[in-house]
Amino acid sequence: MKNHESTLNRVALINDLSCFGKCSLTVALPILAHYGIEAVPLPTALLSTHTAPGFEGYYCHPFYEELSKITEHWKSLKLGFDCIYTGYLCGEEQVSFAKKFIEDFATDKTKIIVDPVMGDNGRLYSGFSDDFPKAMHSLCALADVITPNRTEAALLCDLPTNADPAEFAKKLPGKAKIITSIGRSDEIGYYVKTPDECFGLFEPYLPKSLHGCGDVFASVFCGEWLSGQKIETAVKNAALFVNEAIRETEALDGHWYGLAFEKVLENRRKQNRADESSPCRR
Fold first, then answer.
1. If 0-12 CB within 10 Å is exposed, 13-18 middle and 19+ buried, where does residue 57 land?
2. Is 208 helix (H, G, I), strand (E, B) or coil?
3. Each residue's pLDDT tens digit, 127-176
4. Domains in the chain, start-ordered, CATH in brackets?
5. Contacts 24+ apart (CB under 8 A), 188-194
């Protein structure tokens, strides 16, 4: 049992805090709260904004010693977690830290989700060494579920980005693999391989760059999975959430920097209130 007991599921979120721009922790915290999950953040870096074009000159302060000091205190409190969910890690040293965190805090009942944030559009993000994908591969090997985009899947597998998604899924580490940003013809979506099932989910391609889709997807997936859904159902519900968030974002002016996921949460709350007040409710 977890110390400092709670009837809520508790998730450790090892990810960066980008103050403006709707990604990583600023996405995961409110989404998981919506699911009634206790989200415990462990920031790997503090950024003024996320790093997309349009935010040039951003401030970034990575954390190293701070992470160990925080986790040593948590160990003294004997904190336990139902899930450990990792996102952006600043380099090999933080990958090693994440592996040690899993070793120290995970039990055989702890769900492990790794979002191997390290590249997009066919390239490794600047600031990462050529050895970083190998380090990330070793972290993904500890995961129950990994959620790479196509570029990250290619980097993890040492395959070209235009390789068949089934080939990615065959070579990727982890028990279940959810590959995002898979394009085919005029569609884009997800390729999923679990121990029990293999399938794709696709929607019409929107010729526009929208930031933070992967973070929203992984956070909703985490919320759905911890709420008792099977992995396959959690993937489908997360994909529906992202699609709705894209539509809500498209309806807003000047919202290029992140998904308007708040509108979707608001829509869900309104729907829940309407269902509760329905005269047909028994």
1. exposed
2. coil
3. 899 999 999 999 999 999 999 999 999 999 999 999 999 999 999 999 99
4. 10-270 (3.40.1190.20)
5. 189/239, 190/217, 190/235, 190/239, 191/165, 191/166, 192/232, 192/235, 193/166, 193/169, 194/231, 194/232
CA dihedral 128, 60, 41, 238 (to 10 degrees): -60
Q: Which two tokens stand for residue 207?
A: 């010729």
CB atoms within 10 A of CB 230: 13
Residue type, 260: A
Burial label, 109 (beta-carbon count in 10 A; 0-12, 13-18, 19+): exposed
- What tens digit of pLDDT does each residue of 246-268 get? 999 989 888 889 999 999 999 99
Which residue, chain included where needed, has tokens 């968030």? 245
**Structure-block tokens of residue 14:** 């090892």
